[in-house]
Amino acid sequence: MKRKSEQPILPGGTIGILGGGQLGRMLALEGKRMGYRIMILDPSPDCPAGEVADHHIVADYQDDLAAKQLIQMADVTTYEFENIDLGIVEELERRSYLPQGHQLLAVTRHRLQEKKVLKQGNIPVAPYAEVRNLDDLRTGLKQLGTPAVLKTVTGGYDGKGQWLIRTPEQGKEALQDVQEGQVRILEGYIPFVKEISVVVARSVQGDIRCFTPVENIHRNHILHMTIAPARVEPGVLEEAQELAKQVAKRLQVVGLLAVEMFLLKDQRLLVNELAPRPHNSGHFTYDACTVSQFEQHLRCICGLPLGSPRLLSPAVMVNILGEHVSPLMKHLPDLPGEAKLHLYGKKERKKGRKMGHVTFLGDSVDMMINEVNNLGIWGQEVKQKGQGDGVFSP
Ligand code: AMP
To answer: Which pLDDT score is estimated for 388?
Structure first.
């Protein structure tokens, strides 16, 4: 039922979640702990969130009956992934209470829209150009220099739909399936020294809180490790939080926004990408902060006061992909006492599929990185100092 008043939704109320992946599962677990009822809409009968929710509607997102059920039963609805059909979110916003709104999703799921909005708000981003054909690509490469990164504007994740290109010829393949009127984005290659991110929360009332900025290390385009707090100058930590707040205000965010940034050699920050939901780089908050990103998101959309995002302990989060499950099981007894294991209940182990994560807690992130390296679960060691190991090497 469409909510009329701005009264908070108290425990006992029902939270509807579009999408039943690991983010939905962790939202559901936190929601249950807080005393809410959880309703998931996801077409897969054995999705990770289904097994912990009170109710799982197994149906396509387009299913009218499923939408009606959600509208009738949920006091508030949220989404846990941004590749969901925008029309469905728009309709649910009209017919029910979906405080994040479709507009935030419309901007953040489209790289070009996102860059435009950020640039208009004087938020620093990588230089970019719109590319519709080979001529645009030639002009773009002249303007931005080489190499450059060509990306699809929607649908890309974990490095899919991205090409590092040096010549227009290299971009031809990427442009082959571009239909009339479609567009790609070409970004100048950024020789960053670190990739960092900030998860920021904004309540319905406009109150804003940030979690500590973290440092992210990717392997094969997938997040491998998050180090909290990021090993950067204190001034950079502050500036990263300020930037994240500025972006959240600019976009009138309700709920969480993950702001990914590049740190340059001269200590400047550029905003790379936004996600209007809990983020993999915020999983450490579950074990290391006073309030987790999942609880914070639920507080935002339910109209409760925001919790304190204080970091209680330095933390290192490492993802468990399909190929890590066997070595993890073998080395499980070797995990230190302060390591917290999270598995998402996914049955099929595939290479590169996110199956879970481990959060290490301790006094020194460098010591925790050594522990991770010594466990022999994740193969290739993570270098200790200054990483700069972006997924593209020019
Ligand atoms: P994205 O999907 O935009 O987050 O990109 C995935 C990864 O590609 C980032 O985490 C970076 O490691 C790398 N990347 C993306 N854009 C650029 C860029 N303009 N310059 C250098 N590396 C980039």
So the answer is: 46
Contacts for 128 with CB less than 8 Å, ≥ 6 apart: 112, 115, 144, 185, 186, 187, 188
**Residue in the block written with tokens 């001034």:** 235
pLDDT for 173: 75
Ligand 1 geometric centre to CA of 160 (Å): 11
- Which residues, in sequence order, are CB contacts of 356 under 8 Å at separation 6+? 22, 319, 320, 341, 342, 343, 344
Has 363 been labeled as part of a binding site?
no
Distance, CA of 25 to CA of 347 (rounded, Å)? 14
Structural tokens at position 33:
């702990």
Helices (H), 131-221: 134-144, 168-176
**Probe ligand 1: pick from 184, 272, 387, max atoms within 8 Å of CB?**
272
Question: Shortest CA distance to 15 belongs to which of 301, 285, 294, 286?
Answer: 301
Total-model pTM: 0.95
For the domain spanning 192-375, the CATH number is 3.30.470.20
Residue 234 has pLDDT above 70, yes or no: yes
pLDDT digits (tens, 9 = 90+) for 71-126: 999 999 999 998 888 999 999 999 999 999 999 999 999 999 999 999 999 999 99
CATH topology of domain 14-98: Rossmann fold (3.40.50)
**How far apart, in whole angstroms, are the C-alpha atoms of residue 237 and residue 252?**
23
- Residue 284, pLDDT > 70, answer yes
**Nearest alpha carbon to residue 92 among 2, 226, 185:** 2
Fold equal for 14-98 and 192-375: no
Nearest CA to ligand 1 atom 16: 149
For the segment(s) 127-188, the CATH number from 3.40.50.1820, 1.10.3720.10, 3.30.1490.20, 3.20.20.105 is 3.30.1490.20
All structural domains of the chain with their residue ranges: 14-98, 127-188, 192-375
Binding residue per annotation — 3?
no
159 Cα to the center of ligand 1, angstroms: 8
